[in-house]
Hints:
Layout: E1 2-6, H1 7-18, E2 22-25, H2 32-44, E3 50-53, H3 57-69, E4 74-78, H4 80-85, H5 87-95, E5 101-106, H6 120-123, E6 131-134, H7 138-152, E7 161-166, E8 174-178, H8 182-188, H9 213-246, E9 254-257, E10 264-268, H10 272-285, E11 290-295, E12 297-299, H11 303-310, E13 315-320, H12 330-342, E14 348-352, H13 362-377, E15 380-385, H14 388-394, E16 398-407, H15 414-417, H16 425-436, E17 442-446, H17 448-455, H18 461-471, H19 479-489, H20 492-506
Parallel strand pairs: 2-3, 2-4, 4-5, 5-7, 6-7, 10-11, 10-13, 13-14, 15-16, 16-17
Antiparallel strand pairs: 1-8, 6-12, 9-11
Helix pairs in contact: 1-2, 1-7, 3-5, 7-9, 8-9, 11-12, 14-16, 17-20, 18-20, 19-20
Amino acid sequence: xxxxxxxxxxxxxxxxxxxxxxxxxxxxxxxxxxxxxxxxxxxxxxxxxxxxxxxxxxxxxxxxxxxxxxxxxxxxxxxxxxxxxxxxxxxxxxxxxxxxxxxxxxxxxxxxxxxxxxxxxxxxxxxxxxxxxxxxxxxxxxxxxxxxxxxxxxxxxxxxxxxxxxxxxxxxxxxxxxxxxxxxxxxxxxxxxxxxxxxxxxxxxxxxxxxxxxxxxxxxxxxxxxxxxxxxxxxxxxxxxxxxxxxxxxxxxxxxxxxxxxxxxxxxxxxxxxxxxxxxxxxxxxxxxxxxxxxxxxxxxxxxxxxxxxxxxxxxxxxxxxxxxxxxxxxxxxxxxxxxxxxxxxxxxxxxxxxxxxxxxxxxxxxxxxxxxxxxxxxxxxxxxxxxxxxxxxxxxxxxxxxxxxxxxxxxxxxxxxxxxxxxxxxxxxxxxxxxxxxxxxxxxxxxxxxxxxxxxxxxxxxxxxxxxxxxxxxxxxxxxxxxxxxxxxxxxxxxxxxxxxxxxxxx
Length: 508
């Protein structure tokens, strides 16, 4: 039956059809509508479940864990700070192999206080042992409510599932949704028996046990193994059964849109995929070979699928509503890891947007594709980098007959500085040289320490690099042009120092 529903309402309908026996509820914007609608269903008798209105999000998941341990099919929902408040319980649920389904309404985390949608909440908790899936639209949200139970309750998986809906973009936006009949839902999802993982007085098992150093690793290995191996198989089987019963087909752990022959691909997840999908169609009509890769399941990470889909691209971008402060976007880290594991040499770039509910426009997405196209083609005649790793990062922008100039002193980023083995500049420089071998490009590695020491100040590094570039004669400027520019544009007290830098380069 077709109904006009918000994402929250659609998901509540999916939960009703799944027939959970225990619902632990605590409201938080923008998830509140889910538990409100479920309370109404329990009240009017359309859902036979024990509805427990708890005092906090921590209690909501604790209640679900306890109910699951008795063999009940359970559901809870949360968002943002509520999900973070649950963090202690997330590992209890996954480590205990309790097949709980939880809906998370993606929302920004404090401070500043913000009720609007980004994905920092769920992405900050990827390592807590839950399967994580991201819906693009309200129909998928409803369908995932059913499929999540099928996956979580698979005997070889026994792992909780977090279904993520973008706050307000999905939760409060209305779309026409096909709501299945209870008979269809029952044909797809049989009752849960909880066999082998519940309190049973006739066949007692230990739940919530302790394990020391000698045994803990085995439990963590099994948890990791089943997430990596059993969960993808269960997802595939659940989607195949779902298509048979409901006639709607999904694409597995990822969705590829025009990736087969794409030069430039934008990777994303969640509701923004709809916008990117439209931009890809527009660019294709203009003759641009653009594509989109939507990651549906970020845990388990579909590394092989992602790398295979992206291997033929000339440039890849990752658009996400998240940032790991001091590093980069979390999705970008995962995608780069997948490419690295597969040995795929594809230039990649991170686009972060939508934080705190900020709008991501069609024009911005088109700009991302333009940047990727520029990287794919390599159109820059001259690229100057202040350190080797940055030179490597911008290398794809260099035209085949361009000039790349870089300082040779490594500046360690925070992630490298905290490592026992900071990156070595000589390795990076050697890789750049190998990458440019056999084409018309020219690579100049500048001994910046020697030159700035000769002048007596590190502050002239920019003039040293500019002079080194102009000395090569690849562009229509020379050292005299640079000297005149310095005399006209630099503060008088610094002119002599910068001119000395130019002279030092000229003398070499």
